[in-house]
Structures are given as structure tokens and as C-alpha cells.
Amino acid sequence: SSELTQDPAVSVALGQTVRITCQGDSLRSWYASWYQEKPGQAPVVVIYAKNNRPSGIPDRFSGSTSGNTASLTITGAQAEDEADYYCCSRDSSGNHRLFGGGTKLTVL
Amino acid sequence: QVQLVESGGGVVQPGRSLRLACAASGFSFSSFGMHWVRQAPGKGLEWVAVIWYDGSNKYYADSVKGRFTISRDNSKNTVYLQLNSLRAEDTAVYYCAREGYSNGYRFFDFWGQGTLVTVSS
């Protein structure tokens, strides 16, 4: 399969923990990276290669991978984390990139 | 600081062409692969194309292969996307993104603000 599947929407209570998942066959061979997109802004990488955070990304963001599923976990979600989240990986050839359909996170 | 600034978007009729440009600054442009990613109104991100740091390899999404061409001019720190035979479904904000690398892994570490392409008669 050359697709990455995400739940369209997820909600979390303020201060609680939420996990956003991404499924696809390519994840058995390639790590995912995760991007946060807020309205009117360009995407920002929050996690790359399983569980690496770029500088400036809070440590409440973490990543993991198991089999064909990559996960982004936000521990202690804040109001400013409300956004769309996209996973991204490579296809089986390694030359193309794939994005998941995106997950809209609502912080209640 | 790293900056990516896209230009060239606009309204174009179906079947016509457009060329987008992404001007880079604040880093050694010739050392990085560059991508184009698009987002149709109200939809998710879709990867479009990549060009290696030296222009030696280019890859395209199936949805644009044969119609779009990515290129770069390292002397001008600019990456281009030539859009031919445009269709209504090509309407989107087009982002350029740098392929950064850290700890041996690659990802999109910087993005431009995007340029809107609207295909309509």
C-alpha cells in the first residue's frame, strides 16, 4: 500500500494525554515525521524519525513506532496544541513522500 | 535565518501553464534537497515533487507526473515548479520545503508561506 491513514479528528481535555496514530505499510521500512499546521500558517515539524524533537518543540510532544503504525503523543495537551497534525513518510521506493490525511486535534 | 519565499501563483485557465519560484536565503542552498508540497482548499497536504541538492534526481507524485517539472538554479538560490496542462484539481496552495537532515534522518525542516494557484475558467 502507498497510503498513510490517520483518524480525521481527535479531541482531548486540557492537560490530558492524547495519541494520534498513522498507519501504513511503508512505516515498516521508513520512520514517520509529524507536522503541526495551524490555520493560515505553514506546517511545522514537531517530531522526526521515531522520536526526535527539533529545537523549540516542547517535550510534551513524543513519537513512537510499532509495526506499521506511527504515533504522536502529546502529554499534557495545551490550548495552543489545537491544530491539524500530519504524518509523513516515504513510499516503498524510498524516493517519494507520502502524507497522511491529517488529524484535527481539538483541545477541550 | 532560513527563509523560503514562494511566488508565481495566480488564477489560470484549465490547460494553461504557470511557473512557481521559491527563493531561498539564510543557508547553503546547494547542499539541500528541495520539495514542493500542495494543499487544496480545505484538504490535507499532498507531496508533489523533490529535487536533489545538485539537481541530479527528480521525483514526482503520480498525480502530476508528466505535467509538472521541478528544477533549480543553485547560482540563484531558487527552486522552480513548472505547471503545465493545469486542471481544476491542481487548485491549491503550493509550498516549497527544505529537506533537512539531523541524526542521519531527513524531514521537512523549513517551509515557505505558500503561493495560491487557482485553476478556473
- Could you give the order of the helices and strands of chain A? EEEEEEEEEE
> What overall form of chain A do the CA principal axes indicate?
globular
Q: Characterize the biggest β-sheet of chain A.
A: 6 strands, mixed
Low-confidence stretches of chain A: none
Give the percentage of residues in beta strands of chain B: over 45%
Q: Assess the beta-strand content of chain A as a share of residues.
A: over 45%
Helix count from the secondary structure assignment of chain B = 0
3D shape of chain B: globular
The biggest chain-chain interface is: A-B, 23 and 22 residues
What average pLDDT do the residues of chain A reach? 95
Largest sheet of chain B: 7 strands, mixed
In round numbers, the mean pLDDT of chain B is: 97
Low-confidence runs of at least 5 consecutive residues of chain B: none
Give the ordered list of helices and strands of chain B: EEEEEEEEEEE
Descriptive notes:
- Chain A has about 110 residues and is an all-beta fold.
- Chain A contains no helices and 10 strands.
- Chain A is globular.
- Chain A has strands at about 5, 10, 20-25, 35, 45, 60-65, 70-75, 85-90, 95-100, 105.
- Chain A is about 0% helix and about 45% strand.
- Chain B contains no helices and 11 strands.
- Chains A and B meet through strand 4, strand 8 and strand 9 of A and strand 5 and strand 10 of B.
